[in-house]
Design goal:
alpha/beta, globular, three-stranded antiparallel sheet
Length: 344
Amino acid sequence: MIDLRSDTVTQPTAEMWDAMRAASLGDDTLEGDATVHALETLGASLAGKEEALFVVSGTMGNLIASLCHAVRGGEVVLDAHAHMAKSEAGGLARIAHLYPVSVPSTRGEMDLNVLADSLRPGFSRYGQPTAMVCVETTHNHSGGYVPSLAYLADVRGLAAHAGIAVHMDGARAFNAAVSLGTHLARVAAYCDSVTFCLSKGLSAPMGSILAGSREFIAQARTFRRMVGGGLRQAGIMAAAGKVALDTMVERLAEDHRRARRLWQGLADLDPTLVDPQPSGSNIVRLRVSEQRTTDASAWARALEQHGVQTRASGTGMLRLVTHRHIEDAHIELAIAAVARIREA
């Protein structure tokens, strides 16, 4: 079975298994865990931040960041299709007590004029101050597009002028960095805090890193405990995360190349099957709303009968994600499967 559902299905490498078995362990909420500390130090360095915190997931990291930046509640400005708004179970409002102010976006980039008008430096008759601005890269719900560094700099400038913090949901920030031909620290330079995942294309079995200033991470440790993220012998998982950061970043370019080939092959079948331009990362959206059936779930079932697993995104779209278990031959087989379904 060719599994294109997500890059979260990646399995640990042999080197990760070896590191997990050999990890030096402690209690991370008591005296600390040496392996966790090593991972956090590496994560902070790669992100260009003072310190970092190992958390269970990207969603937890984003929630903790929201709690840190919005101790007194307020508003959060983010794009209308942000993962933090659409796919994190309402934690922004339910737990962090933040009122979401959505801004229209194109390929993951918010309309800067609307963004500027949405920022509220202080209390007014219309609402509470903006506690933080959120950006996302790569941008999940837009189809994996990579916001430009110029855009990130513009958002940072607008927020800084109003005295507002910027948090980056960088679940696939390494994909963004590789796509842009730069390092993570360059991408994260335009935010006060950043979360990035170890368990997607980097192939670790669990975990994310939240990075920011020393003071920010001190607060984050308390909030991590509040939301149930206090970890014990977490070095077992941290060891795999460290191997992921040491060995798995550069190979993401292979996933991007294969996603580009998948996009091109589908576009050759029918340009309406895909977005007008490739995302630049490892996500391809298969648009089925223009085909004979508009039910994406039916397409997913049909593709599975042809040996290709995908995920429906709404009623008219499927999301296909490349990762290290996907080979060149798998891409050609997936394109051929789509062609056969269309012909049928």
